[in-house]
Amino acid sequence: MELPRILREQVEEMLEGQPLDGLKRAAARLSSRYRQELRDGSFHISDSLAAKAYLAARLPATYAAIRAAYEMISQARPDFAPEYFVDIGAGPGSALWAATDCWPEIKSAVMVEASDAIRNVGRSLSGRLDLQTEWLDGNLIKALPKIAPADLVTIAYVLDEIEPHQIDASIDKLWAMTLDTIVIVEPGTPSGWDRILAARDLLLSKGAHLIAPCPHASDCPLARPDWCHFSRRVARSKMHRLVKDADVPWEDEKYIFIAASRFAGEAPQARIIAPPQGSGGVIRLKLCQSDGTAGERTFSKRDGATFKWARRANWGDEPERDGE
């Protein structure tokens, strides 16, 4: 997956002429802070150099993960057409670009971000979108500006910056401003999965309907050392490769998310929750199923059309719905 052309061109313009050594050091600092899940009271993106490093090293991956999550939602709710979008902890607007790519019907958006450096970048980038956007200073824990409830509320790669004991209250705030659907995206790590499970349980307790990725509302059937997550392959630009000292032209972004709504969607029969295995006449898929169980299932040529689906299926896919 690549960034939308207009966004990619703007990022390239912002990075043009920026000394590579400085970008690489700033990107390394960002990566270290994210991996350690530091909560030291400082912004991960504290200045313009860190903001540019984020554009070069992280924006393509976060955009791809959020866009993949939205795609699963659109499959479960093909009638969902949000017009008003809110993003808390918006960064440079990764979720906004992903949302407008998935749902062109979006007419207005409110983007809340506490870091001046990355908020200014996001405001500049979103100026090329054909919709009304408002960028506000705000913090989910300390103080949020007054925001009208929205059709679609997103918080992506933010819960890992919040103390665990503050997550429930944060989800309460987000659900209260959700008219239809809330989407929470986290890194595809065991700790990211733990945070998504906590959010899932809380949303279910409030009567929310799970939209994706879960095919059921029962307790998650996975247990450590296993955990639920997905992966999205991301195309690396030349600058992306240089900043990361990478040789291959792609990377795989691991992510996990939960989408819940005040309205029921059409749950899939199952979801592929690991990379497909096998080749030739036999394919093995690890499936989370609508009955609340998870396990491996083997498909062979004798399964006919189902085998054809399994052979081309990817991690995160669901079985084809009737009429597809």
TrEMBL record:
The keyword Transit peptide applies. Gene3D superfamilies: Vaccinia Virus protein VP39 (3.40.50.150). The keyword DNA damage does not apply. GO terms for molecular function: iron-sulfur cluster binding; metal ion binding; methyltransferase activity; structural constituent of ribosome. GO terms for cellular component: small ribosomal subunit. Transmembrane segments: none annotated. GO terms for biological process: methylation; translation. Keywords: Iron, Iron-sulfur, Metal-binding, Methyltransferase, Transferase, Transit peptide. PANTHER family: 37S RIBOSOMAL PROTEIN S22, METHYLTRANSFERASE-LIKE PROTEIN 17, MITOCHONDRIAL. This is Ribosomal small subunit methyltransferase Rsm22 protein. It comes from Rhizobium gallicum bv. gallicum R602sp.
